[in-house]
Amino acid sequence: MKKDVWARPEMEVTFRAELMPGKSRDERTFKVSKVLWNGRVLLHGFAGEHRESEFEPLNFTRKKS
Q: Which of 26, 30, 32, 52 makes the best surface tag, with the fewest CB within 10 Å?
């Protein structure tokens, strides 16, 4: 695996709103279960491989409510 990957296992990622219209941020947020060699990720509770561009940009300063 590359060292400069965009995601890590167990971190939360949120699908872009236009990919899941009508869903709240919480409904679009999933945890990464595995980062694949090609940079795509597998998610807990959501099937398929997903690439970085499907998700909102990561914001490490955002506080959870």
A: 26
pLDDT exceeds 60 at position 2: no
pLDDT tens digits for range 6-40 = 899 999 999 999 999 999 999 999 999 999 999 99
Q: Do residues 26 and 65 make contact, with C-beta atoms less than 8 angstroms apart?
A: no
| Alpha carbon distance 35, 2 (integer Å) | 10
> What number of H helices and E strands is found in the chain?
0, 4
Residues 6+ apart with CB under 8 A from 11: 31, 32
On the 0-12 / 13-18 / 19+ scale of CB atoms within 10 A, 50 is buried
The torsion angles phi and psi of 19, rounded to 5 degrees, stand at -85, -20
